[in-house]
From TrEMBL:
Pfam families linked: DUF373 (PF04123)
Protein's organism: Halorubrum hochstenium ATCC 700873
Protein name: DUF373 family protein
Domain of life: Archaea
Segments traversing the membrane: 158-176, 182-201, 222-240, 260-282, 302-323, 338-359
Keywords: Membrane, Transmembrane, Transmembrane helix
Amino acid sequence: MLLVLCVDLDDDLGRKTGIPTPVIGDEDVTEAAVALATADPEDSDVNVLFQGVNVHDELAAEGEAVEVAAVTGVDGPDVKANRAVAQEVDRVLAELSTGEEVSAVVITDGAQDESVLPVIRSRMPIDGMRRVVVRQAQDLESLYYTIKQVLADPETRGTILIPLGVLLLIYPLVVVANLFDVAGAAVLGILSGAVGLYSLFRGLGLEETVDGAAESVRNVLYTGRVTLVTYVVALALIVVGGVQGVDTVDAVRGVQGGSLAAGTALAAFVHGFVQWLGVAGVTSSLGQITDEYLAGRFRWRYLNAPFYVVSIAVVLFAVSGFFLPDAPGVTALGLSELAMALAAGTLIGVLSTLAFAVAESQLPSADPV
């Protein structure tokens, strides 16, 4: 038996008409084609369906045992779409349930849909494949209107015309730059870099990420979230801490009178940096706790965060100070002092955990939204 298989990899048929797939039988496939043509006359999958019915009718007229079916994938990655097509092909073969071997003639509208051919071939032999090309699309007039329609779309227009415009401006801008004694190579480099950054931006789909970040910032501003302020303060504290860490490295280097080993330099930087990092962590966590409380999602265990930050900062400050000599801005610690600092850091973390666990079990807290 021969199966004429119409492939719609991105599921235009299901998404635009709501018809469940797979569709089996020449009458059902014809009705599906008419429904898709009504919903979107410009969709090329309409021609695939009608071509499948046409091939079915030709083979049936020749006395061939033939059936026609339409299978779809999903509007997503090729692997996911191919798996969806495979499942529908299996359903078609199960519904045919003939005792004879089934082979296929695959009808597609382009190379993308043909990526599913190995999946179909793994289930039955493929006797032929036909790609549907609309004749009118080959005419110059049709090409003109196709380009006009593509450029009428704002997203496509921005994607194509902006880089093209920048490329066309490179030569005249270089000429103008030379007239004003500006290095033309610098202008060329700036414009090429702009085109490259734009291409990467569009190619990686970063516009959605940037739009989402901008929307989040607007929501934070309009809803009055405290974390906006505390994060800015925390960032400033981290920058100051980085500067302080570098100054501490210079101070230790001045005391030792030479270059520092990598471990000593790292300990000096951490010793100067961790105090400011701890304050930044406490500030940001307090802001987050405040927002959770205002939003009605407060939990007592959230109060552990600033204590954990302090505990970690105490441990890092003590350990780094243990490996450093006396120097301006350095608190050099002995072994007993290091042990006390480690014990204090551990106690801070453990006691805060126990205290807030008891508080959460005994005191009510807001239900999450």
